[in-house]
Every structure is written in C-alpha cells, then in structure tokens.
Amino acid sequence: MGREDMPMLIVYEGEQEGHRWLVDQDLITVGRGSDCEVIIAERQVSRHHAQIDRRADGYYLRDLGSKNGTYVNGQEVKSQPIHLRDGDEIQIALAVKLGFVGADATVPLELNGPNKGLAIDKAAKRAFVGGHELTPALSLAQYRLLELLLDNVGTVVSRDEIVRIVWSEEESLGISEQAIDALVRRLRDRISAIDPKHKYIITVRGHGFRLENR
Predict the structure, then answer these.
(1) The whole model's pTM is what?
(2) d(Cα 24, Cα 31) in Å, to the nearest integer?
(3) What pLDDT digit, counting tens, does each position of 62-112 carry?
C-alpha cells in the first residue's frame, strides 16, 4: 500500500485545526504524550487517549480508558472498538474534532472542473476554490455551512436552517445572529483569500444567505 492509498486524520476543530496525519501503521495511538503517533496538545486529552488498529476488514478506534472520553459521530466509544468509515467525525475529550478520511476518499469527488468556482469532497470534508484546496482545512462549522450553501446554490438559505445544520441541538440554543454573521464572514475570508474577485456568498437582508457559484 503506497502512502497515497492510506487513510488520514484531519483536525476540524481545535488548536491544531487543519493538521493532518497519515494512518500508515498497524497501530496508531492518539493522545497528549510525546510517544503518541498522533499528538494532541490539549489539557483535556489523556496522555494515551485512544488507539486506531488496522485489521483485515478496515480500521477500528478504541478508547484507552481516557478521563474525558472518545466519541465517533456523537456516540461514545466504550468497551467495544468502533469500525471507522470515510467521513466519520471523531471527538477526543469533546475538545478536538478529527475527521477520518478513508483511502478511497482521498481524491476529490465533486469538483466542478478545473478553475471553476467552489467544490467539495463530501467524504473527506475537503473544500476547493477554482481547483485549489483550502488549506488548512475549514473548521467543521465552516465546512457544514459551505456544504449547505452548495446544496442550495442560487436559493436563499435561512438563518434558522443554518443553525439547524451547522450546530448540534445543544449548541444551537445559544447561537445568536452575530455568531452566524461571524461564521459567514470567516468562510468568506477563507474563500476570498484564493478568489477575491468573485462574491460567492450573498447576504439577503431579512431572509438569509445565497451562494452564487461560478
């Protein structure tokens, strides 16, 4: 198996946002310790927090008795390891969000073509502007907003819909209009850093936002 055929972990949220690690060994330890293959320097993360095992039928994540827990797509990893699949969201101590990108999802699947507008690879949660990947990777909230706008390109997406899709039910209770505006502004800034000439995200006052893709 070549390095280009190996899955990877991508930090979506946390101090190391955008950082990536290839899952290129039979056993990968995730934690705060300097002897871990995936080192996450956050206080809430245990020294040896979780482990990914490569088996004949894929990759499995198990918790190593961590103090603050390990979660996959919101489900706590307890005594039984969880089989990882492309696009799974891993939360380490609820402080860091990682994406698991399978080996068969490392090539962009939904590019609009060379040098044409915005595109995403949903399996890998990667975003592209004019064929250029946004690096470091978008935060999970930024990616979810972009995916929502692309799924509804040309039509207005309401603020309520953005809150419902981008934030969890618990988080959404405290989301203000200012928080939505700040998220939109950060996404605009990331896009304009690559393509400053086209205004992709249009504010429709009193209604929401509309994506005008090239």
Answers:
(1) 0.53
(2) 17
(3) 999 999 999 998 899 988 999 998 888 899 998 898 988 876 544 444 443
Q: How many CB atoms lie within 10 A of CB 1?
A: 8
Supply the DSSP string of 89-123, one letter for each residue. Answer: EEEETTTEEEEEE-GGG-S-S---STT-SEEEETT
Rounded to whole angstroms, what are the CA distances from 92 to 31, 56, 200? 9, 25, 34
DSSP 5: G
DSSP string computed for 24-36: -SSEEEEESSTT-
Element (H, E) at 192: helix 177-192
Tokens read off for 107 = 């090539």
* Residue whose pair of structure tokens reads 């899955």 in the numeric block: 7
Residue 160 backbone dihedrals phi, psi, to 5 degrees: -60, -40
